Each structure stands twice: as structure tokens, then as C-alpha cells.
């Protein structure tokens, strides 16, 4: 046992586990630890080199009997945990959609965790609920959403953890609304619709909600339509299902799909949904944030016809995980599906109906004070600050696209719409489609194994493509340029450096 | 515009939103802010005095166009947010079940938020997944759970946000298992069981899972049975339902109900469930943590017969919100109900089946790195530290019980089992049951309005009772004593101070 443990030991353990001065001392250490982490994170292998079981082999298999000193724990985090992380905060991280943390988003989470209030209803912490209603109206205005999604317009917003929960809750609202009309026993007749590019969250929500697997319609898209959902196909499929005696009730449209950032035509899809009185949810998990910039707002055109819309502020709005913003036009549909009224939560404010009780807008009862971090982000950066940050990501992605387009060994697979580029090595003469896919798979694996950048893949129209998504907050142009040079070097090695190419 | 804004303005905004030195500077300020908050929190009115709309009236109705300096935002938090909070961290907080934050739990959350990894599968951050499997095994051992709930025994644990999600996920696992046998179209025949004391999370989960409302069985309990679920009644009800052609599939038993900390007889209930091959989930949201102390472990006796068990480390295990620990005996039942396998997440490690992909153990895809905070709590305090903290809460509750029992105007309504006391003013001569309830309602409202303590209520066997739950981390004996004096003073005023009483 080291000197430190002897020092820290008895006196520390006799203190309250939330002793304010000990909290202060350790808190400062953790802030310095994280600041140093951000200073160094560019140098770490982006994707962890861990093998399955590595961490469990390094750590004891029982909790300690006696408490351990904080400094020893912090050292273990540096020695054992950090090497096992895939560094989403690295400037060289371009995989999936990056998680967009920032100082403001982080500090908001820190304050929420410090206050540690459980805002299930208004009374349990009025400011937590009211800040959430405020910040959801603020953001709706900043995105140019129609008044009907704001509290002042009869709608309203709520912070969920993730898009999965947002889609599930809206689907449940739509389900209950429909079953109230046709009878709850007809749940097996319900049908849901989305494109084959929709996020897996759509199918998972349908499964949880008890929709029969044969009643998930994932409608095919085409390269010619840039992988967007065809309103005509949706209309025809709905009609066919109705003729078969089924009950279409929910459509999920996407603005910015995960595979290729495809954008479904919201206006036309809403028209189809509204003809048949279906609930249409807009999943704008990634791309929704872009609408703080007027030049992207046209992708939401027609959204006034939708029933609900969600985006993840933790994806592209500088807010640390988790923070999914969901707006609905008719909150009563949500609360009719999700409200409970146990005796122990009864109170005058709730009964007055003058307040929002967010427990009835989500799956869980307990909820963290997520509004704080989104409020801090909006205030710290302001609308113009957010615009300039998002535009810088778009500009970096566009520059990457130009670099790819300038090397004739490569192709950009779909047009760049936001801050993500889908590219691949072109099919070379004599290579089959599967061989081309395999070559790209090896290129990506080599890149991720190098630890110098991290990207991910998709399969789009049968083609294996590499996705570079700019969005990690520390990323600068030089990191994007390095990532491209790395791609080229790996391509040189894969294809044979002697081949003369267009660079 | 103040000098500060001029200072902080341009230069700050030109920096990266995650500039490490700015992060460090602001991070230290927030730590000091929270340390000071804990120093002062005992002096704040525990339940906020806010009126509906107060906060929204104080704040602008649009996000700012330009960013604002951090110090101004922090001042607003002190001026506008703090007065609108109900202070769950106050030592005078005794309502619901307190949220049990601590320095270790807080710092774990801070580190997770700083790393900001999205651990949907093993590959996306191996250490996040492996630390979670480790810490769930550690805690299972500390609680004396059977080997069959550990990864080493073929089971395993996962960190969910809340009990609502844990009950929902286990119910979905049980639903899918049952429907695979009887056909998915028979969802309307499914029946679920719990006592009338079970948490509203049970009914909410059943509703989300598409169980027909007429098929929720909330079985009546009695005062004679201390409000615990009768195994005989359960057996008879299940038989009756089966005879009617329905399909019983899920039982939720509770260790430590919200109203009165009643404990269902786990062993006998598991026997009933196992006779009929039903899934039995043990909801030990509050009281489960007590099993780190051997003297409480007998309440889990027979748990080896259950299919799953959950407890909230954010309720009584020093871990900041949110942290619900769920163990299941058969993880494949969970993943069969909740897994998705989208192309963009495919990877070698997952295909090798050597790793856990927690996305398939929960509703959401994205997930925070919650294991960090639970690991920090277990290491910082060790098993003996946690035991002594929980025992101190129990001792304080027991002392409060004695104080109540020593004042003949009051009665303790049910025996104290953990760290919660249910009490009320006794029915006085000539008062109806409803008048007695009203008197207690006024007593509680007066207490909460005073701001000097915060408690909540339940209705138990028709009686309105006041609940004092010890568990807020800063609470010491003197705070419990003060709360009792406050109760007495309010009773004096309500009943007339002139009445000679037994004190």
C-alpha cells in the first residue's frame, strides 16, 4: 500500500461521500485530466487496438473490499481505459456520424449531473421542465420549424435520449390513436412504412410496438432517385395494403440517411400521408441540425405537413451524448399513449393542467436534466456561431470531395449534400463487383488499423463505400487533408504504386 | 455590453468550441460553482417555490444571435435556474426515493461525458463494453446474486437508464419468447401479473409492449400481508386465465415498493412462475442496493428462480442519475427480441460472437458510457464503505421511526424495513377517515411549503401517509432530527398547541 493510500485513506473515508471540499479537489483533477486528454487525443490510435477480453484480463474480478484512493483510480483510467477507447473526440475521427461534443455541451451535462435532479414532472424540479420547453422552442425557431411544432402553436418539444426512443414514442402515439378508432385487438393489422434506407431504429420501434414483422414496409429506393423514398410508391403501397384490409398508420421519412445522407421528399410524402390520415415522422437525426443555416432549410420544405420531427443534437449540434430533440404537433397524442398517473406523483400543479409533465412524453419515468446542455450550447455559440461551425464542417467535406474527385482511381458515389462524403476505389478493368467491394473493404480496414484516422462503411446500391463524415469538434482542415493522404498511400500499396494515376 | 463580454467575445469565439485550455478554464469554474452549491444547498428551500411559467417569463424567447460569455451564463444559472430547482441533493430532501449522487458517481459521469464515446457495440469503444460487463459482474457478486446472473455463469448484466426501460426490455424478451411458440398474431392473448403495489412502470411497459389493457393483472394486497403479493392468489389467477384460453407470460415482483417498501416473497413467486414457464422479473429499484449488506440479503432469497432482476444504482448506491442495473439469466432471450443488424455496424468482432454488443440489450442504439460511474463508486468506497453508508441511512430512518413512535399523536403505518418510514397523524376521535387523510395532506403541504424539508406521500390501504426516505448523500442525523421537529411544530399548529400530548 503506497504512501498516497495511507494519506488518502482513513481521513477521506470518514468524510461524507459528497464532501464539498473533496468534491472540489477531485473535480479539478478530472477537469485537468480531460483537458490534457483533448490536448493529446490526436496522437492516440483513433480506433482502439483492443482485442476481445483485453480489459477484463487487466482488471480484478471482484470489487475491492475497502475503498481506493482517487489518484490510483485516475491512473488506472489513463493506463487501462483510454487505450480501450475508440476516440470519438479525436480530430481524426470520421466514422458513422461523429459525436459532436463541445465545452458548452460538456459543462451543461456536468451541471445537470451535479444538480442531479429527477425531473419526471414539473413539480420535481420546475426549472428543469421549463428550461426544456424554452430551449425546444428556441431551437425550433432557429431551425425555422413551423409554429405548429412550438408550445406557443399548440405543439411542443421534448428531449429524448436517442432517435430510437423518439421514433418509438411517436409510433406508439400513432398506434394508440389508430387503435382507439379500430379497436385494440386489431394491432396485428397495423402497417408501417419507410424507405429501405431508413435507420434500423424504425424496424426496432415497430418490433417493440408489436407491429407484425410482415407489416414493416421498407420500400426500395434507386440510385436514379438518389436513394430517396418515392411518394408514388408509398401511395401505391398504402392503397394496396388498405385493399387487403390492413391498417396503414405510420410513415418514417428521413432527412439525411445514415448510409448516404439521402433526403426523402418531405412535402410530397406528407401529402400522401395526410390523404390517408397517417402519422408521418421526419427522422432528421443527423442532418436536421443543418437547418440552422438558411441554405439548408429547403430540405425541410413541407415539414408543416408532418406530425413529428426529431434530430440528434449530439450528432451535429455540439451537444454531448445523449440529446435527441423531438417535436410533435399534437402532444396530447403522445401523452394519451404514454401517461401514467400513480398516486405518489399526484400534485396540484399537474392537476391544474398548467404545466408539462415530461414523464408522459417518453418511455421512462425518471429523466435527466438534458435541457441544460442544449441551452448552454445555444447561448455560448449563438445562432451565427453554430452556423459558422456547421459551415466549416461542410466546407471541409467539400474539400475532401474535390480531393477524391481529383484522383481518377477513386469515385464519389453519391453527391455530397451535408458534411459527409461517400467514396470508393473505382471498379478496375477485369475486377468483378465483389472484388471491387473487397478492395474497398481492405482499404478501409487498413485505414482503421493504422490508427491515424477512423472512417466507416455502407453498402449503397450494392456497392461497398467508404464514408468520411466531418463533425468531430476538434477536426481542422489539416486533419481532413492527412486523412486523404493516408487513403492515397493505402491505395498506392493496394493497387501497386507503380501505376501512373491522375494525381 | 460589459467589459467581460468584450474580453471574452471575439478571441473566444474564434477558438475551437472544444479548445482544451478554454475547456480547462471554464471546467474549473463549473467545479467550483458546484462545490459551492453543495456547501450552500442546505439553506435553499428544498422544494422550489416556483409558480408555473416563472422561468419562461424571466428568459428571452429566442436563442441569441451571437454567442454570450460563459460568466454571464453561469450567473444566470445561479439567478434563474437554481431557484427553480427542487434540491434533490439537499440534506433536507426526503421525498420519493432520493437520488443518491456522490463525488465518485459525479466524476464517473464527467469522465464519460468528456470521452463522449457512443458504445453501441463492442468495436465502437471496447473498454466501454468490457468495463460494463466487468462492473455488472462485480456488483452481482457484491449483492450475492446467483452465478447464473453473471457472465461467467451464462447470464449477464447491462446498464439501462431507468427501471421503466429494464421492465420493458425484459417484458419484450418474454413476449417474443412466448410468441415464437404460439404465433405472433396471438399478442392480444398475452397476460401480465404484478401486485397492486407494483410501480407504474409495469403498466407502462405492458402498454408499450402491446398487451391488452384488460390483460394487466394488478393483484390486490392486504395490510395483513404487509402489502406483499400472495403466491396463492397469483397461482389461482394464472390458472383462471389459462382456463379462459389466455396466455400468461410475465410476472413482475417487487423488493421494496414505492409506496411502503413492501417486499414480495420472491422464492414462492418464482415457484409459481416456473410451474407455468412464465418470465419473472424482480424489480428491486430502490431496495436492491441494500443487499450489499448481508443482513438484508434474505429479501432476495429464492432469486435464483427469477429470470431477471433490476435495481437503480441512482436511487441508493451513490451513483448519479441515470444508472439502472439489469441482470438476466438468458441474454439470448433479450437479444432475440431487441437485436438489429444494419450493414453500417457490421464488423469482424461482432461476427466472431466473442463480444457483447449492448445495442441488442436495450431499446436505443446509441448509449452512454454509464459503467464508468458505477466503477468509480465501487472502487472509491469498496464494499465495506458502501455497507457503512447504507447502514447509516437505515440507522437514521430507524431513529426517525422511534421519534414518531414516541409521539402519540402519530403512528408508523407499516414496519420500517429499509431507510424509509411511512407515518401519519393518527385518526383523532370524531374524525372521518377522509378528514384524517386531509389533515395529513395539509401537514405534508405545510412541510413542503416551508422549504425546510421535503417529503412525499402515498396512499396505503386507503390511508394517506407521509413518506420520509433517508438517502440524500449529504443527510446527517441532525437533518433528520430537524425534519422531525418541523413535523411536530406543524402538527402543533394544525392540532392546536394547547392539547397536552405525550411528548
UniProtKB/TrEMBL annotation, chains A, B:
Q: Which UniProt keywords apply?
A: Decarboxylase, Lyase, Pyridoxal phosphate
PROSITE patterns for this protein: DDC_GAD_HDC_YDC (PS00392)
Q: Which GO terms describe its cellular component?
A: cytoplasm
Name of the protein in question: Tyrosine decarboxylase
Q: Name one Pfam family in it.
A: Pyridoxal_deC
Region of interest called Disordered, as start-end residue ranges on this chain: 1-21
Cite the InterPro entries for this sequence.
Answer: Aromatic_deC, PyrdxlP-dep_de-COase, PyrdxlP-dep_Trfase, PyrdxlP-dep_Trfase_major, PyrdxlP-dep_Trfase_small, Pyridoxal-P_BS
Top-level taxon of the source organism: Eukaryota
Gene3D superfamilies this protein is in? Aspartate Aminotransferase, domain 1 (3.90.1150.10), dopa decarboxylase, N-terminal domain (1.20.1340.10), Type I PLP-dependent aspartate aminotransferase-like (Major domain) (3.40.640.10)
- Listed GO molecular functions? carboxy-lyase activity; pyridoxal phosphate binding
Can you name the source organism?
Answer: Dioscorea zingiberensis
Record-stated family: Belongs to the group II decarboxylase family.
**Example of a GO biological process term:** carboxylic acid metabolic process
Q: Which residues form a coiled coil?
A: none
**Cofactors:** pyridoxal 5'-phosphate
Amino acid at each position: 500500500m503506497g504512501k498516497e493510500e495511507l494519506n488518502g485513506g482513513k481521513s477521506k473515508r470518514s468524510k461524507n461521500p459528497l464532501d464539498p471540499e473533496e468534491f472540489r479537489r477531485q473535480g479539478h483533477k478530472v477537469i485537468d485530466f480531460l483537458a490534457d486528454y483533448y490536448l493529446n487525443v490526436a496522437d492516440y490510435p483513433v480506433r482502439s487496438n483492443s482485442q476481445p477480453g483485453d480489459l477484463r484480463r487487466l482488471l480484478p474480478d471482484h470489487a475491492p473490499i475497502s475503498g481506493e484512493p482517487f489518484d490510483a483510480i485516475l491512473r488506472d483510467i489513463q493506463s487501462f481505459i483510454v487505450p480501450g477507447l475508440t476516440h470519438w473526440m479525436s480530430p481524426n475521427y470520421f466514422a458513422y456520424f461523429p459525436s459532436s461534443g463541445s465545452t458548452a455541451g460538456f459543462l451543461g451535462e456536468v451541471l445537470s449531473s451535479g444538480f442531479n435532479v429527477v425531473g419526471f414532472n414539473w413539480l420535481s424540479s420546475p426549472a428543469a421542465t421549463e428550461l426544456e420547453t424554452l430551449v425546444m422552442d428556441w431551437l425550433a425557431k432557429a431551425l425555422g420549424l413551423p409554429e405548429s411544432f412550438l408550445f406557443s402553436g399548440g405543439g411542443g418539444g421534448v428531449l429524448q435520449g436517442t432517435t430510437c426512443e423518439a421514433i418509438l414514442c411517436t409510433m406508439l402515439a400513432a398506434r394508440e390513436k389508430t387503435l382507439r378508432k379500430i379497436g385494440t385487438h386489431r394491432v396485428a393489422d397495423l402497417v408501417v412504412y419507410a424507405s429501405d434506407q431508413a435507420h434500423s431504429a424504425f424496424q426496432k420501434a415497430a418490433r417493440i410496438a408489436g407491429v407484425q414483422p410482415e407489416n414493416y414496409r421498407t420500400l426500395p429506393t434507386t440510385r436514379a432517385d438518389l436513394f430517396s423514398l418515392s411518394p408514388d410508391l408509398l401511395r401505391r403501397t398504402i392503397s394496396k395494403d388498405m385493399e387487403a384490409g390492413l391498417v396503414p398508420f405510420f410513415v418514417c421519412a428521413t432527412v439525411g440517411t445514415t448510409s448516404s445522407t439521402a433526403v426523402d421528399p418531405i412535402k410530397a410524402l406528407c401529402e400522401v400521408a395526410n390523404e390517408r390520415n397517417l402519422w408521418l415522422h421526419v427522422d432528421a437525426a443527423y442532418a436536421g441540425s443543418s437547418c440552422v443555416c438558411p441554405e439548408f432549410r429547403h430540405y425541410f420544405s413541407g415539414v408543416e405537413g408532418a406530425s413529428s420531427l426529431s434530430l440528434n443534437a449530439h450528432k451535429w449540434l455540439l451537444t454531448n451524448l445523449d440529446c435527441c430533440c423531438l417535436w410533435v404537433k399534437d402532444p396530447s397524442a403522445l401523452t394519451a399513449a404514454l401517461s401514467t398517473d400513480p398516486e405518489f406523483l399526484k400534485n396540484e400543479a399537474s392537476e391544474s393542467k398548467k404545466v408539462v409533465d415530461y414523464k408522459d412524453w417518453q418511455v421512462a419515468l425518471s429523466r435527466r436534466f438534458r435541457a441544460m446542455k442544449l441551452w448552454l450550447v445555444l447561448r455560448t455559440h449563438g445562432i451565427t456561431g453554430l452556423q459558422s461551425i456547421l459551415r466549416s464542417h461542410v466546407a471541409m467535406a467539400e474539400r475532401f470531395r474535390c480531393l477524391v474527385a481529383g484522383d481518377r482511381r477513386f469515385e464519389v458515389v453519391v453527391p455530397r449534400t451535408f458534411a459527409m462524403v461517400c467514396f470508393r476505389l473505382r471498379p478496375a478493368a477485369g475486377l468483378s463487383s465483389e472484388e471491387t467491394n473487397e478492395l474497398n473493404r481492405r482499404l478501409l480496414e487498413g485505414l482503421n488499423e493504422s490508427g491515424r484516422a477512423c472512417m466507416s462503411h455502407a453498402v449503397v446500391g450494392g456497392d461497398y463505400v467508404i464514408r468520411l463524415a466531418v463533425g468531430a469538434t476538434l477536426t481542422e482542415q489539416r486533419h481532413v487533408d492527412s486523412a486523404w493522404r493516408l487513403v492515397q498511400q493505402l491505395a498506392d500499396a493496394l493497387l501497386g504504386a507503380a501505376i501512373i494515376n491522375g494525381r
